[in-house]
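Appendix C reproduces, verbatim, an entry submitted by the partner laboratory led by Prof. M.T., so that reviewers can inspect both the input and the predicted structure.
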Amino acid sequence: MANRCETPQPGHFRHHMPLQMRFNDIDMLGHLNNSVYFTFMDLAKTRYFQAVLGDKLRWGEIGVVIVNVNCDFCSPTFFDDDIEVETAVIAIGEKSLTLEQRVYSPSKGDVKCRCVTVMSGFDARTLTSAPITDEWREAIEKYEDKKF
């Protein structure tokens, strides 16, 4: 098994989002609080789907919900560190998709944390799982430049 905290191969992630830490993001130990990483990754998911779907993204009809998140914390992040979130869809099934995200420092090259998130297709009217739509699948495959 590969070390999840290693820097990925160039081109693995097409979506990058620079982050700005706030004073209240830092905990008593002087580093970024673990819970803040999830906030940053949620924002990056939003920006990723905006980049992938463009004007086809309808906020009142989001077709996915998070069903599982696994996060490895690799190295501490301090207030003066420059950090980004990189995001990629790594798998698409009939009713789910899997995202990989990393928070890392572009200047230092070190990975701060890595998350794998499974999102289920979702029908907000019936509150039940639903297939990933062809529109989403095609847009993701085009953006990622690969077939799933």
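Residues 16 and 85 are 6 Å apart (CA to CA). Additional entries are available on request from the coordinating office.
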